[in-house]
Amino acid sequence: MTGFDHVGLTRPASQLVTVFGGSGFLGRHVVRALAKRGYRIRVAVRRPDLAQFLQPLGRVGQIVGVQANLRNPASIVRAAEHADIVVNLVGILQESGSQSFQRLQAEGAGEVARAAAAVGAPMVHVSALGADEHSASAYARSKAIGEARVFEARPDAVIFRPSVVFGPGDSFFNRFAGLARMLPVLPLAGAEARMQPVFAGDVAEAIARAVEGQLQGGRVYELGGPEILTLQQLVEYTLKVTMRSRVVLPLPAPAARLQARVMEIADTLTLGLLPDTLKLTRDQVTLLQSDNVVSEAAKAEGRTIEGIGIAPTAIEAVVPGYLWRFRKAGQFATGRGTPDMAATPDLMAPDPMGQGSQHHPGDASGPAVGSLAAGAGPAPGVRWGKRK
To answer: Which parts form a coiled-coil structure per UniProt (predicted)?
Structure first.
């Protein structure tokens, strides 16, 4: 039995799902997955006009944007009204003005859960791996507090904790690829931190299955990809895909915090106009002092992406498809001169006319076939030879 069994008895086309934060990077994948299943979707965002790009993902009238701000409880209640299921994807990586971790990720998550409870709607909430109320990171603490408040209002809620989420438009691989295009040296905070990147499409599929009622409520699921790599290994992979030769310089924690402080001051002096690729906060440096991988307890209890029946997608299957734009020649870059291109391809036969070759001119149609190949002219009235 799952926490949402009563939802599964109704056809998706007659159900309304309110998705808070549905226009973000992960949100667009979630909206697509729900639209394919036939759900009616209400995308609750601060700027509905900026969410119109989602409408082509579904049928006419299937996806509608509404205004909602997690700092405004009344707008949350209106967005959740008449909803059959509520999904909360709202999250930020760094604080800015009134957009604080505490207000959005802790208090805001609780407000959404209470609104869902008020209309009797089950809830799916997305948190993050590393959520810990005792963490030195304000980000991690706010995520843990948000989870607790969600369970207080909806004990049957399904909560997901993904690791670093990647995919077209992500702020991870794209960020380092952008830095490599600008800088000859990449100073790296938390270079030895282990991560388990998970594809946004896989996370969206897990959320859609929770909405369908396939997952047990009242549990926290930890989502990670098939590989565990250090941050430095991931950056080096990014350099390989973008065909950039850069020096990766791991920074000790004190130097990393100093770098973050300089970036914070620069961001303040530029009134927040510092490019996102250059922004770094001391809280992020603190977060990078810990690994971001699925726990052994989650594996043992089946609270993982594999445990719910999804085969995780490897970074090699997706990342090259959207990082090519960071290469010097873009999609026309061949990698000529790189070790990979210098090696002889496995499928190339050592002897062009040997047994392993696919080149057999004698079997092809044309003037060189049959009697012409034997030295005589073609038969009268026959222009081409015949395939054997």
So the answer is: none
